Amino acid sequence: MDTIAGLPAHPLLVHLAVVAIPLTAVLAILASLWPAARRRLGWFTSAVAVVAMAITPLTTSAGEALEKQVPRSETLHRHTELGGQMLYWVAALFVLVVLSWAMYDDTIARRVPAAASVRTHRWLRVGLAVATIVVALGALVMVVRVGDSGARSVWLG
C-alpha cells in the first residue's frame, strides 16, 4: 500500500503507529506492575498489540516506497534504518503481551493447561513481567527515535 486516496501512505499510517505502539507499551507496563489493571484491561491490551503489530509492517513498507520518491539524505537514511528496527520491538512486545494475557486469563487457562501451570511459577511470572517492561520501554524509546529522525528528514533535509 503505497498511497491512500492519492497521498503517500506512510505519513498517514504513521499516525496510527504512533498511537498504537505507545498505547500498547503503556498498557503492557500497567498490566505487568498492577494486577488490578491487568484484570480490568483483560484482552484489550492484546487487541491494541494486534493493531500495532499489523500497522508497523504496513507503515515501514509504505515508508520504503516513499523513500524511492524523495531525494536521499543522511537524515532520511537514519530514519529508514531506525524504522526498519521498529518491527522487531513491536513483534517482541506483541508476543510478550499475548503470553501475559494467556497466562492470566482464566478462560484460556481452562482450555490450555500449560497457561495455568505457568501461572504458579513465581519466577516465570516475574521474568515475563520484567521482559515485558523492558521491551515496552525499548519500544517507547524507538518510537521517539524513529519519529524524531523522520521529522528531521522532512524538516531539515
Concise account of the structure shown:
This protein is 85% helix and 3% strand. With 157 residues, the protein is mostly helical. A two-stranded antiparallel ribbon has the order 1-2.
Find the count of extended strands (DSSP E, 2+ residues).
2
Give the overall average pLDDT. Answer: 92
Class by alpha and beta content? mainly alpha
Alpha carbon gap, first and last residue: 25 Å
Folded structure, characterized:
The chain has 7 helices and 2 strands, in the order ββααααααα. With 157 residues, the protein is mainly α. The protein has one domain. 29% of the residues are buried. InterPro entries: DUF2231_TM. Keywords: Membrane, Transmembrane, Transmembrane helix. This is DUF2231 domain-containing protein.
